[in-house]
Amino acid sequence: MSKKKTVLDIQKMKVDGEKIAMLTCYDYPFARVMDGCGIDMILVGDSAGVVVAGYDTTLPVTMDEMIYHTRAVMRATPKALVVTDMPFMSYQIDIADARRNAGRLIKEGGSAAVKIEGGVNVAPVIRALVEIDIPVVAHIGLTPQSIHRMGGYKVQGKRVEQAERILEDALAVEAAGAFAVVLEGIPQNLARRITESVAIPTIGIGAGPHCDGQVLVIHDILGLCEKYSPKFVKRYVDARELVSAAVTAYIDDVRQGTFPTDEHSFN
Ligand code: KIV
After folding, report:
1. Which of these, 61, 67, 153, lies nearest to 106 by C-alpha position?
2. Total-model pTM
3. How far is the CA of 45 from the centre of ligand 1 (A)?
4. 107 alpha carbon to ligand 1 midpoint, in Å?
């Protein structure tokens, strides 16, 4: 059995030109499947608020919820590197609060690293976490926790000055000590420029093919989130259809008395 992946293994993948495969995950059964398939990294994303809890945004997600999801994922991941999102308002107040909350995700959740949204503006927080040995993945471009500032989930960096700012964000989070950076919702040429400008791995979502790795939300690739269907998602299966067929067959069986049979009964 291969050993648990570390931050260093992920960084080496960029050096070796190996693409990094990452997915979000929020529970034990999906984590078991993904780890068994050989996924490199799992993100316990605050997207849990949208795809699991049914909120419209990630903003209501709490620290306790992130710890709960992380614990479940950790019990099923002997190999993948697990990173947990710091939810909205868990790192924005001050450095002491950010350290306390990141520490909880590592100590109580069991995660190996945390992810923080923001660039130049959160560089001091990244530095403060790295100083106490908490590895950080940064997240720049379209940052869902900034939905109210952005006025919706819109592609960022289309205008030249905005693209320059996102490049500055990438350089700032690298200088602050982030070991990788998620690039979300930016034009592919900007993602390529950032990927060539930083030594840390870039992991894209809606950022085109030139990143060092890719991340998607598991519910999106399985067709389990009908609320929205962004252009950047590739749906690999229609699990909603599969689950509906199974549930409908079960309802019919119960109503017609064809379940349970002797096979499912005790004597
Ligand atoms: O919470 C999440 O799922 C994320 C990904 C979209 C990168 O942050």
Report:
1. 67
2. 0.97
3. 5
4. 22
